[in-house]
Amino acid sequence: MFKRHYKILIIGSVVALLSLLTLVLMPGTAPRQLRLRNTVFPAPVAQALLAALQQELPGMVLTIDRLSTLAPLQDTQQPALDIILTDLHSMAVYGAVAEIPVVRDGVALIVNANNPIRELTAGDVEQIYLRKLHDWKFVGGEDAAIDVLRRGSGYAEVATTLRYFKIRALRTIDPWHSGHSSVAIAKVAQEPEALGFVSLAMAHRARAEGLTVKLLTVQGVTASPENVLNGSYQLQHTLGIGLTDQCRDLLPQVQAAAASAAVRQAIVSAGFDLSLPQSPGE
């Protein structure tokens, strides 16, 4: 009698365990995992978008590969991403197959406010970037070595600058370990010899907040949000949200998150304009 009950107990335990394993392993029961990386937006905008995505995608687990533009990149290889915040031209680099345009932004060439330089010609930018011109004195500045923030600036900003000035870089830019505008702006504010390629909206806001940075004139046009919007400042690109193939089905929910009032308010508060004028080359 005892043996029979013991057998029943064992069989029942095994059945319960198998049922539990079936429930755990059954397709569709585990939370869907999504990985997001932010490469261009200031942290408040990315945080607002993250909150909106979590509201639009209940039951899904969002892993932040990089949310704050101040966070260092630690990956030694390319991570698998689902959602990427970058410019439209860079979407394919990160494997995005669907794009949601969000805002226009200029790319500003910035120097320390104490640097007497006010403008660089297309030839100057090319020679400096290709390391053929090393000293500020050759472009009207002080006798000091030029510290070009190639890796320190954001991938999207550097790539847009090279495309605009038609510069053929000898080395491929690394999108996975590039810096970000917030880091480059802080560095330029501290170093009189530095030259950065950064978000115009973020640089304009940083200067208004008292950081010692100067936005250089490009092709005779002042680097300002107004000139980005009216199209006269043509060193610009569209920032947005990209979805990789494995989450293409989430496009309607991500579009709704991007259009939410909280995200739009965060964008405006960060100094971006919500208008999306047609840009040359896009």
Give a structural overview:
This protein has helices at 2-25, 43-56, 122-129, 155-164, 181-190, 200-208, 225-229, 251-258, 261-269; strands spanning 33-38, 61-66, 83-87, 96-112, 147-148, 194-199, 213-215, 236-244. With 282 residues, the protein is α/β, with parallel strands linked by helices. α2 links the parallel β1 (33-38) and β2. Strands 1, 2, 3, 4, 5, 6, 7 and 8 form an eight-stranded mixed sheet that branches. 34% of the residues lie in helices and 19% in strands. The protein has a single domain, classed as Periplasmic binding protein-like II (D-Maltodextrin-Binding Protein, domain 2), CATH 3.40.190.
Key phrases:
alpha/beta; D-Maltodextrin-Binding Protein, domain 2; eight-stranded mixed sheet; disordered N terminus; 9 helices; single chain
Quote the beta fraction: 15-25%
Low-confidence stretches: 1-28, 277-282
Q: What percentage of residues falls in helices of 4 or more residues? A: 25-40%
Average pLDDT reading = 82
Largest sheet: 8 strands, mixed
The helix-strand sequence is HEHEEEHEHHEHEHEHH
The CATH homologous superfamily is termed Periplasmic binding protein-like II
CATH topology: D-Maltodextrin-Binding Protein, domain 2
Span between N and C termini? 81 Å
The CATH architecture category equals 3-Layer(aba) Sandwich
Count of discrete structural domains:
1
What structural class do helix, strand and pairing data support?
A: alpha/beta
Helix count equals: 9
CATH level 1 name: Alpha Beta
Total number of strands: 8
Radius of gyration: 24 Å
Shape annotation: elongated
